Structures are given as C-alpha cells and as structure tokens.
Amino acid sequence: MEDQVVRALLDQSPDAVILAGTDGLVSFWNAAAERVFGFSAEKAIGESLDLIIPEQFREAHWKGFDHALGEGDTKYRGQALATRAVRADGETIYVELSFAIVKDGEGTVLGALATARDITERFNREREMRRKLRELEQQKAAG
Predict the structure, then answer these.
(1) What's the predicted TM-score (pTM) here?
(2) Which domains occur in the chain, in start order?
(3) Three-state secondary structure along 6-25?
C-alpha cells in the first residue's frame, strides 16, 4: 500500500516531478510535467534531460548534475531557482525548480529529482513592473 500512496502523490502532484537516473535519462515524469513541458511521459521517459534544457545551459547543467551526484547532495537543496526551460513546441518558458539527490536505504545515489512549476506569466509581469519602475525613476531624476 505504501508504494501505491507514494506513486499517487507523485502522479497527482500539482508541480512537475521529474526523476533522472545517474545517466541523466528521465525515469519518472508525472502529469504536471506533461502540462508544463508539453512532452508526454511516453516521450520523455528514457530521454536525456536535454529535452527541456535550453542548449546554452546544457554544459553548465551537466557539470552541476555530475558534481551533485558525485557529492551525493546539491548546493541548491531547500531552494527554488528560477530558470529557463524548453517546451515540446520549442517555446522557452520560465520555471521555478527545486532539486534533491535521491538515495537508496544504504546511501547509494540513484539519481536526481526535480520539481518544477511554470512561472512564465509571473516572471513577465515582474519584468514589466521593473521596467515601469525604471522609467518612473528616470522621469523623477530628469525632474
């Protein structure tokens, strides 16, 4: 029963839940990941995480991924990071990601878990507010 509850929690999470093995291949992809990234679980599972990582970030991603797996921890544990990702239709979106290194009962690293949510609308609203604030500050400074 416990396995069923865990599977249901992951499947029904409102946030995208993605698990990649130590090889960087997707081994779990929930319904929210399908909504956020546009790839079905059937398409994503077995594929490289490059599926959703913009090309310009891949080198840094894999360096960090390999380091975190080697250390058995991530420096981003407990943090949510805003970054760009790519959807199945090629659209670049902004996502907020949280990470964890997944280990078995003996402490052996099994892979990396990420949760993600699409923050594109919020990001764009905040960027527009910052732009308007800069304009107001410039108008005020100009007198």
Answers:
(1) 0.85
(2) 2-142 (3.30.450.20)
(3) HHHHHHHCCCEEEEEECCCE
